[in-house]
Design brief:
Number of domains: 4
Number of strands: 13
Number of helices: 23
Largest sheet: 7 strands, parallel
Distance between the termini: 61 Å
CATH topology of the largest domain: Rossmann fold
GO molecular function: UDP-glycosyltransferase activity
Structural class: alpha/beta
Strand order of the largest sheet: 3-2-1-4-5-6-7
Keywords: Glycosyltransferase, Membrane, Signal, Transferase, Transmembrane, Transmembrane helix
Oligomer: single chain
């Protein structure tokens, strides 16, 4: 009994201690008021008092003479006239890479025509872009890499079979390297010093222009990020969405799904040195460092230049606005600059291409396909003629064997090919070219949008930069994707998943490989139908007009109302550590309760069984009485043996 009582008292003491701990935790968990939330009501109250003209510490006027006349109250201050958002200075900032700057140039040009005060800041090599779109230019200094060094790096990235190393090269040698020079060049032009007319009220930044983001933090100016491609996110996307940089299709194999989880973590580790360089820069500028790579864009308003239909459906933060591709607004300055008529000779060449007959191999492909269409089958196109528009951009540097594969795969007269190829890459072409192939250098006189909108163009062979790919889709053209750099494999995978194109591996190009893909795209109309559908979905997202609405709303109302609680709550609340602590304590309490109940039941059952045994079999002998009986028996035995020994006769 003494042991039972001691055990029960120990259990109840532990139970009382756990109950007190849970009570303290519950009190802490339910106390969500921090210093900022406590100060907010008082601040709003003071604002309300000032707004109504009351003085908090004013003396009460109660004169002894009974005269209720008091000194005249001071006149209420005249309310400030609200500033028209169109009078505020909006500065667009981008590195001098056309794919990053073009969407911002289109938005800035349209906003200027609507009466907003805008400027465009980029490197000196992009000065002509700002002037062409009619936007005031602010110099961000020289591009940190010479044209020759950039060409060498891009050529190495294009030839590298691994896209992973190309991503690291872009971050280390271009994005991060351009950060500090751009900051130093723009800070004196945009800071508020009382006499600076260029001081900005809002910055609209390209997402890769990390130096401008530090500039916004230093100037304490609100900013909006523009993502011209898929949203860069290290591990934040759902597991069923292909991670940024993988180039995976939505129909991932088991191995791809394993790598889809691992790749963002590996990329995050590999990007640690450039992020440490950014933190070093922020330390020198007296800015708080990023605690992790996720803090780089944390809490920022983001304009995402794509939309669901091309991008995979997934949950997005309220701070992210998917506006689709930013195209020139019809009738605007950007549209007049980009959509001027094509040269008459080229236009005549395109017009005659519509009436040409199909090639022999295309006729054979059409004849071998079934004419009847059943459920699940695709229609076979019988439209004659057409032009393949080949444009791999200015950043991809292909090798001679890749150029040979493209020429062989597209040499199928009378199918015509228009290849936009930079002059410095002409040396990779084969010595003899088919007459159906026309090569032109990139030029302002060759409007890409006019080319894509021409009815003779039936297929686009593209590197699948996001801007180029979405322009082709908006014009309803299917894509043959040959991705080379950074995010291009991801965009190509999205195009293939949407059914609007086919993606080829740059490392496996050959003449038959290219020709089979071209033939499939030209004879199977499902790709064209899918391209038109995806293009319509992209246009319905809003484009430039929606992006302007987002910027205008940020000027008028800000965007703090879009920030979710996890951006401001303490980390332990975001991770639910306090909630899990309560659950763990409850589980421990339940375990102790079950144990105590078991001991009580065991005690009751054992006592009941003992009582029953006493009633049926009688009470057991006390342990001391039994021991004494054993001792007496032993002593009697000794005495009996002694008597028998003495009774024996002596010999």
């Amino acid at each position: 009994m003494a042991r039972h009582d001691h055990l029960q008292s120990g259990v109840f003491r532990a139970l009382a201690l756990i109950s007190l701990t849970i009570l303290a935790l519950a009190t802490d968990v339910t106390s969500y008021s921090d210093v900022s939330s406590i100060s907010t009501p008082s601040a709003s109250f003071e604002d309300a008092v000032e707004a109504t003209g009351w003085a908090v510490n004013a003396d009460v006027c109660l004169p002894d003479s009974g005269d209720l006349s008091c000194p005249a109250a001071a006149p209420a201050p005249t309310p400030a006239v609200p500033v028209d958002p169109r009078e505020r200075h909006i500065v667009f900032v981008s590195i001098a890479i056309k794919g990053h700057a073009l969407p911002l140039l289109r938005v800035a040009s349209e906003m200027k025509e609507r009466g907003y005060r805008v400027s465009f800041a980029t490197h000196d090599s992009g000065k002509e872009w700002a002037h062409a779109y009619g936007v005031p230019f602010l110099s961000a200094g020289a591009f940190p890499i010479s044209a020759e060094d950039l060409r060498v790096k891009l050529r190495a990235m294009t030839r590298d079979a691994s896209n992973f190393r190309g991503i690291l090269t872009m971050f280390n040698d271009i994005y991060v390297r351009a950060a500090r020079p751009m900051f130093d060049a723009l800070l004196p032009q945009l800071e508020r010093n009382g006499s600076n007319g260029n001081a900005s009220d809002l910055l609209v930044l390209d997402i890769a222009t990390v130096g401008a983001q530090d500039l916004a933090h230093k100037l304490k100016v609100p900013y909006i990020l523009n993502s011209p491609s898929l949203l860069f996110d290290l591990g934040g996307a759902p597991s069923y969405v292909p991670a940024w940089g993988t180039g995976f299709s939505e129909k991932m194999s088991l191995w791809n799904r394993c790598m889809n989880i691992l790749f963002p973590r590996l990329l995050s580790v590999a990007l640690t040195p450039p992020f440490m360089e950014l933190n070093k820069m922020r330390y020198e500028l007296d800015l708080p460092p990023f605690r992790s790579q996720h803090d780089l864009f944390k809490g920022a308003r983001v304009i995402l230049n794509t939309a669901f239909g091309l991008e995979h459906p997934q949950p997005l933060s309220p701070l992210v606005e998917a506006v689709g591709p930013i195209m020139p607004v019809p009738g605007g300055n950007a549209s007049r600059f980009e959509r001027h008529p094509l040269p008459s000779a080229l236009l005549s060449w395109l017009d005659t291409s519509i009436e040409s007959t199909p090639s022999l191999r295309l006729r054979q492909r059409t004849a071998s396909s079934p004419r009847s269409k059943t459920s699940g089958d695709h229609e076979v196109d019988t439209i004659t003629g057409g032009v393949v528009y080949l444009n791999l951009g200015t950043m991809a540097y292909i090798d001679a064997w890749q150029a040979q594969a493209l020429v062989e795969g597209l040499s199928d007269p009378p199918l015509k090919v228009l290849w936009i190829l930079p002059t410095d890459q002409r040396g990779i072409l084969p010595p003899t070219l088919p007459t159906s192939l026309v090569i032109k250098p990139p030029s302002s006189s060759l409007s890409n949008l006019e080319m894509l909108s021409h009815p003779a163009v039936r297929l686009v062979v593209s590197h699948c930069g996001m801007v180029s790919a979405q322009e082709a889709l908006v014009m309803g053209k299917p894509l043959l994707c040959i991705p080379f750099l950074v995010d291009q494999p991801d965009v190509a995978a999205r195009v293939a998943d949407s059914g609007a194109g086919i993606s080829l591996d740059k490392n496996l190009l050959s003449g038959p490989y290219v020709h089979a893909a071209v033939t499939e795209l030209l004879t199977n109309t499902s790709y064209t139908h899918a391209a038109r559908r995806v293009g319509s979905l992209l246009e319905r997202a809003g484009g430039a007009a929606r992006a302007i609405d987002v910027i205008d709303a940020a000027l008028r109302l800000g965007f703090d109302h879009l920030a979710t609680l996890n951006l401001t709550a303490p980390w332990h609340k975001t991770a639910l550590l306090d909630v899990w602590a309560v659950y763990a304590a409850l589980i421990c309490l339940l375990a102790v309760f079950v144990r105590v109940q078991w001991l009580l039941i065991y005690f009751l059952v054992s006592e009941s069984f003992s009582l029953l045994c006493n009633v049926v079999f009688g009470p057991p002998l006390p342990p001391t009485s039994m021991a004494e009986g054993y001792d007496e028996t032993y002593e009697d035995g000794d005495e009996g043996s002694g008597c028998s020994d003495t009774s024996q006769p002596a010999h």
